[in-house]
Amino acid sequence: MKKSLILGAAAMAALVAVPQADAADVKVGGYYMMRAVTQDTTLAEDSTLDDTQGWFQRVQLNVDAKISDKTSAHLHTRILGSSDTIEGATKGNAQDSDGAMDVKRAWMETEVYGITVKAGNMPLNINDKLLFKDDGGSYGTILLAKNFGGVTAVALNVRADEGLTTGLNADTDDANVYGLSLVGKAANLSYQLTWAHLDVEEDYSAVPDSTNNWIALTVGADMGGMKLTGTGIYETGHNQDGTVTDTLEDGGFMGALRVKGKTGFGGWNAYGFYAAESFNHPVETYTSSRVNQGFSKTWFQGGPGGTVLMESWATGDGGTSSKNNLQNLMGVGAGATVKAGSWSIKPAVDYVTVIEDAGVNSKSAFGGSLYLTTALDKGATFSLVGIYVKPSDDSNTVDYGAMQALQAEFKVKF
Fold first, then answer.
1. Which of 101, 237, 251, 380 is the one with CA 20 to 30 A from 408?
2. What is the Cα 240 distance to its own chain's centre?
3. Is 313 in contact with 299 (CB distance < 8 Å)?
4. CA geometry: angle at 380 spanning 379 and 385, to 5°?
5. pLDDT tens for residues 347-365?
6. Of 324, 247, 320, whose CA–CA distance to 283 is shortest?
7. Whole-model pTM?
8. Which domains does the chain show, CATH number per domain?
């Protein structure tokens, strides 16, 4: 199956070409995934309000049709979604939680006068997944790409929020991101330089008649068997004709570094990031949606019954905003992969702290995860998962407890 499109140096060729074939080729695949889950995801000591215990399942079906060397179409659906419970015997057949099939992605690719064109709801990962990240869903996008002697220029329009498509406000209630990205190599460095401009129309309900801009640079290098990927993003500041919070008005900076390497027993990885108090992410500027960055599994775990424990801390009493977990925070983490017989063992540790004290109670948190995975058969795996986050307790009035999750997971790819 084709992997998610990553608009980065490692996947530059994917922007302008598809694999060679002599005839139309339709591939059908996907996966079934089930998790048995018991978890507590609130900060409050001894709270049982959000305790979760159950079996959750997901079925994803992918259809990828390659019509010619230049043209293809794709449909990725969730027949059963992220939070669909395996029901008891009296509940009838398993079904999606809202009773409808969830189309996660649907897009086409072709070429017009030597320019690659992609349009639809597609996976979109830009600047090491920090400016935009595909989290299993998609962004409505029109993307144009052209190679110029080893440098790929990418122009895109991300339909951040479509709003109405009919009626009086059909042309004045949208939120769009327009972007230009250059992807290439210089010596032994790969790079991606992106400019993104947010344009929110006058009848948009959340932050009407406003703009913002971001400049992002990602640089990757291989150094003695160690791969480094660094990203810096500068945001100029939210500009709105009207009243808006000081947080949105200010510009800010975030930077992140990921490092990984191999050892005789497996591999290792580490990360660090800094997001200034005044930094605003493109998604955060116009909506309450949160950015699920993948620094580690304590920050975001996909799949049915997946947890977001560190994110829950960052956007709760420990963080700085009810909707932004890439603001006013600094974090580091490290992990390893150890091969032990048929098992793959992946321990990881994390630490995050608030940069500027905003009057919150918990100003730092430790976290960690442990994955044990083994292959049962061709395409079938079994995993045991543990995730833990312990916030600091800096309050005289609130008792903070640890958050944790224990899971057993089956996954079959087909």
1. 101
2. 27
3. no
4. 130
5. 999 999 988 876 667 788 9
6. 324
7. 0.86
8. 6-413 (2.40.160.100)
Q: Which residues contact 134 (CB under 8 A, 6 or more apart)?
A: 4, 5, 123, 124, 125
Q: Measured between alpha carbons, how far is residue 1 from residues 66, 74, 411 in Å? A: 12, 11, 16
List, for residues 229-278, the tens digit of each pLDDT value. 999 999 998 887 755 555 566 778 999 999 999 988 889 999 999 998 88
Pick from 220, 250, 255, 225: nearest CA to 238: 250
DSSP symbol at 249: H
Q: Measure the CA–CA gap between 151 and 88, rounded to whole angstroms.
A: 56
- Of the two residues 170 and 321, the one the predictor is more confident about is 170
Identity (one letter) of the amino acid at 243? T
Q: Position of tokens 């949105």? A: 248
308 vs 59, residue with greater confidence: 59
CA atoms within 13 A on the CB side of 192: 31
Q: Which two tokens stand for residue 216?
A: 């992002």
Q: Which range among 238-242, 294-298, 332-336, 345-349 shows the weakest confidence by mean pLDDT? A: 238-242
- Give the Cα separation of 395 and 237 in Å (integer): 32
Token pair in block for residue 376: 């049962």
State the DSSP H helix or E strand holding residue 286, giving kind and residue range, or none if neither.
Answer: helix 282-286
Q: What H or E segment, with its residue span, contains residue 282?
A: helix 282-286
Using the predicted structure, report yes or no on whether residue 328 has a pLDDT greater than 60: yes
11: three-class secondary structure by DSSP? helix
Q: How far apart are CA 338 and CA 344, in angstroms?
A: 6
The pLDDT confidence band at residue 336, using thresholds 50, 70 and 90, is very high
Taking the C-alpha atoms of residue 173 and residue 139, their distance in angstroms, rounded to an integer, is 18
